[in-house]
């Protein structure tokens, strides 16, 4: 048993020692993922009409539906509700 564990550890060490620089495909993939995330955030901001990183979204579930409240981030005395929506419906509970 000890030999098997030692063998597995020794075989795994070279893999653990490799970094992302050894795999150019990984670096390219990560750049594409970051660009995709940036595009998603930009399009979301355009669709919502306000920047997501400067606001806080609160999602509330109620027995008859739910609500979303969006407030501007900042000191408590300057917080402003910029969007509030409530929806009721007969959709089944997704939980």
Give your account of this protein's structure:
By secondary structure, the protein is an alpha+beta fold. The protein has a domain of 66 residues. The chain has a 3-stranded antiparallel β-sheet with strand order 1-2-3, with no helix packed on it. A hairpin with an 8-residue loop joins strand 2 and strand 3. It is elongated and about 65 Å long. The two termini are 44 Å apart.
Chart the SSEs and their pairings.
Blueprint: H1 2-17, H2 24-48, E1 55-62, E2 65-72, E3 81-88
Antiparallel strand pairs: 1-2, 2-3
For this entry, give a set of tags.
95 residues; alpha+beta; 3-stranded antiparallel beta sheet; 3 strands; 25% strand; elongated; disordered C terminus
Brief sketch in words of this structure:
Helix content is 43%, strand content 25%.
The parts where pLDDT drops under 50 for at least 5 residues are 91-95
How do the strands of the widest beta sheet line up side by side? 1-2-3
Number of continuous helical runs: 2
Radius of gyration: 24 Å
The run of helices and strands is HHEEE
Report the mean per-residue pLDDT as an integer: 76
